[in-house]
Amino acid sequence: MKKVSGGLVLFKVDEKNDQIFVLVAHPGGPFFKDKDEGWWSIPKGEPEPNEDIFNAAVREFEEETGMASQGPYLELGSISQKNGKEVFAWAFEAEWSENRKVICNEITMEYPKESGKFWTFPEIDRALLLPADEAKQKLRPEQAVLVDRLIQRLPCIDKAKAG
Known about the structure:
By secondary structure, this protein is of the alpha+beta class. The protein is built from four helices and eight strands.
């Protein structure tokens, strides 16, 4: 069965400068420590049994950032990642302080694989609110499309300047 995830894209519009800012999250743990462009993600996760994908997106956003989301939400559709997982996404506008500390759930995994060494670390180690073009560079390439879809759905923005 194909795996699915639900995620939320926090954005902020700077109407004065026709610019959109998007929150991106860096995965925690030793494998991602020195990885940057192309490795960040939107906060997302898999639904629990019998959980609606949108409700999973809302829950995962809060678990991974420590911040509750609030609508209205814009549906951004879905994308397929290289690993075959389909990610459904929604966007919402909110403030994100530059100094905000991520309060995130932790995961435990074996690293390196089959080494017998287990590490516990935050699922994401930091999150940044970046201009849309910079956010797209940081995101996994498949997820950058979600930023483009967001820009197209915001009527108040000059699309050429936004990213």
